Structures are given as structure tokens and as C-alpha cells.
Amino acid sequence: MTFNRGYALATGEALEDLEMGGGSRLSLKVTGQQSLGLITVLEGVVHSGGPPLHVHQAEDEVVIVLEGHLDYQVGEERGEVAAGGLLWLRRQVPHAIANLTDAPCRFTTVITPSGIEDFFRGQRDYLATLPPGGVPDPMGLAAVSGAEQRRVVGPPLTPLE
Length: 161
Description:
single chain; mainly beta; Jelly Rolls; 6-stranded antiparallel beta sheet; 3-stranded antiparallel beta sheet; 3 helices; globular
């Protein structure tokens, strides 16, 4: 594989898989190392839940749902995106996504500029210290390197009534 000219990954291949607990996984496909800092591309599988409402200071994200459903909040807007749907998550706008169904959700995310992969690695490392079924401590997550660039401003999403 030649990184400086581009490369191909087969279905299921990744540069690195990050196990995020509960069967959820982020598979890094392109990182800042390959893109010279321009983009990060990942494929994710989330079985349930998602991150709290947060604000990225310097990154824009596009999330494309491949299988399943994601609930979202972008600013004050709440909704759901099904397979084939897309979310545009602009920097400095509070947002959250979550799988609130009983079925796994698979998605691709493109983030620009790159660098968030180091934050995800730190989250993975923190989550790996929790006992099975343990609930992450907000202060523990806030201590992960890079969290200061992705400020938590609200709780994770829950089902709408």
C-alpha cells in the first residue's frame, strides 16, 4: 500500500480499528498521516447510544448512514436519519448523534481537517479502563487529550416523547 499516492482498502479493511465498548467500533480508513492533515475518514458501527451534545472548535463533519438509523441534534433541530441519509455537522454548532434503536447502525464519517483520530484513540483508551457495563464518568472523558477542542455542552440524546 502506497500512502503518498493514494491507496485502496477492500470491504472490511481499515488502517486501524478502535473498539469503543459495547461492540461499537470506529475503523480508520484515512487519517492525517495519509492526508497530510486534510481529512479523516472512518467507518463506524454503534450498537446503542452516542456522544453527548458537543461543539467542535475546528472540525466539520459529514456523516452518511449506511445501515440502520441515527437520531441527531444539530443546533436546536432534532430528527432521525435512515440508511442513505446524510448529516452535515458544521464546526462551532452544537451537535450529537445516537443510535436509539435495537439494531446496530453503520455509518461513514468524513472530518476536516484531520486530527480527531487522536482524540478517538484517547477515548478508546479511557473506555477500556471501565469495567464491563461501566458508565463513563464525564470528568474522565473530559480529561481525554483533545476534549478541550470538542467541548461537551449537553447530555447524550434520549428518545423523543
